[in-house]
Sequence to fold (254 residues):
Amino acid sequence: MATQLKPTIECSKEEWQARLDLAACYRIFDHLGWSESIYNHISLKVPGEEDTFLINPFGLLYDEVTASNLVKIDVEGNNVGGSPYMVNKAGFTQHAYFHKHLGERAQAICHVHTTATMAVCSHKDGLLPTNFYACNFQDQVGYHDFEGVTVRAEEGERLVENLGDHTILMLRNHGPVVMDKTIQGMFVKMWALQRACEIQVATLGMGNPNVVPQDVVDVHQRDLHVMQSQGGSGVFDFEAWKRRVDKIDDSWRS
Fold:
């Protein structure tokens, strides 16, 4: 196991742990092929503080993100932690609105442009219950019509309205926004969504899919909920992938 480095910046113990987890998450996303050059975001609320968040420095690739170079910002995207790095405020617009208005439900948020998730977001029927993973999300995903680049604050109200009571919003013709109260929960949800979309793309490429009936989906989701409670809402998954990226390069801990 990698050595747990002491904070290299001035912050609380809780913030440093959040920085470690978020930096690891960027490296995991990169390892899994979910990065998009220097774009997209994973943001995480700073524990014990009001309306402050950690996010990637704009201009760095995901494999360059470390615990210490993450930027601390307020809900408007302003740098409040003294970082020399800038953030992509335009890209944070949607995250900011979710963080500000959804509270605990949106303490960890990611937005990705993976090929599979963007393909499903661009399909008229969206995510279909045609595979094991897709059945996890049936009736638990919101959809938001494409309005162009998400840089206008006034779009935020419609984003939240279309999200409803869910924690995944498929931006049509764009890509998904996935959120959770923990970074571990957000990660495992994103992992399952990615798999659902990959399999859907492959299935539709073969012709007519076999759609799972709603009564079977209901049983699947009931039993899945019991199984997920044993996994600590993604904790086991996240720790396993942290071990994997540690073996490759543990510089994210610095």
Summary: The helical segments are 13-31, 89-102, 115-121, 132-137, 155-163, 183-204, 214-230, 235-248. DSSP finds eight helices and seven strands in the chain. The first strand starts at residue 41 and ends at 45.
